[in-house]
Amino acid sequence: MSEPTPRVDTINLFALNFLIENRYQARDWFEDTAKAADQLLKLARQLERELSETTKLNKELTEQLTESNEKTKQLEFELQAFNNRPSFPISENPSPTPPLQNQLLDLPAITKIIKETIVAEKASQERSCVAVIEKMPELLNDHQTGVADQNFVQAIAKEIGVEHDLRLRKLHRQGQRKEGRNRHIKVYFNTKESRDTFIYTFRKCLPKLQENYIRFNLNVRRDMAADELARLRELRKEAYEKNKALGLLKFYVSDLILKEVSNPRPFVARP
């Protein structure tokens, strides 16, 4: 009876020969298996991180839900207290309440208000750089008047030290030329600061100029909106009436403020 050992050795030898013949395929298989195992490990770690983040988010949502439930209970309590408040007698003739649709926002009207506000703001910014010399005397024609106005304003601005900010080309008279009427001059500057300096120093510089304009009692002010001009006329009328009653030039208007002088001069009524 033969022993089994030679058969086992034959099988092992066959397996060894198979591995030797297929060693490259075996190596690739082991490498692919290692890569697959590494990818599975990375995937497991990623799933672990996502699970941790999910747990954290779940905890935060739970806390938010609990807080929302508490706020809801508080609102329900306040609503119940409001419904149970004591009632008061209603007037027999209550003022009519407009229907809900009339209380809703009127978008076209709001758009119009916004546009008007923007236009008004732009106009206000432009006025902030404009001075107005009131009732400048007229010459023989518009050309002579225009040349004289430019020379006069330029000389004043140079004397004050704001000629560099003067926008001489925009200088013009307000309104149409009429016989016996002296019009205002609008003087434009690049900055509000130069405009203000021009207004505050204007009257001090007049005596330094050898011009016929010095004979006239010129006044300069800032450019104003329509409602401000209306208020200015009211204040000037008030100052005139008070001065007339006193017989003294005691009251005057400065930038929409009625002021008094300490040493008033005698009042001379308008012709």
Number of strands: 6
Kindly report how far apart the N and C termini lie.
160 Å
Question: Within the largest sheet, what's the order of strands?
Answer: 2-3-1-4
Kindly report the CATH topology of one domain.
Alpha-Beta Plaits
Q: At the fourth CATH level, what is the homologous superfamily of one domain? A: RRM (RNA recognition motif) domain
Overall CATH class of one domain: Alpha Beta
Write the layout of secondary structure elements.
Blueprint: H1 5-21, H2 23-83, H3 100-103, H4 107-127, E1 130-136, H5 142-160, E2 172-173, E3 183-188, H6 192-205, E4 219-222, H7 226-246, E5 248-253, E6 258-266
Antiparallel strand pairs: 1-3, 1-4, 2-3, 5-6
Helix pairs in contact: 5-6
What does this structure look like?
The chain is α+β, with helices and mostly antiparallel strands. Among the domains are: about 10-45; about 125-225, Alpha-Beta Plaits (2-Layer Sandwich); about 225-270, no CATH class. The protein contains seven helices and six strands; from the N terminus they run ααααβαββαβαββ. It has helices at about 5-20, 25-85, 100-105, 105-125, 140-160, 190-205, 225-245, and strands spanning about 130-135, 170-175, 185-190, 220, 250-255, 260-265. Strands 2-3-1-4 form a four-stranded antiparallel beta sheet, with helices on one face. Strand 5 and strand 6 (about 260-265) form a beta hairpin. Helix 5 packs across helix 6. The N and C termini lie far apart (about 160 Å). The mean pLDDT is about 80.
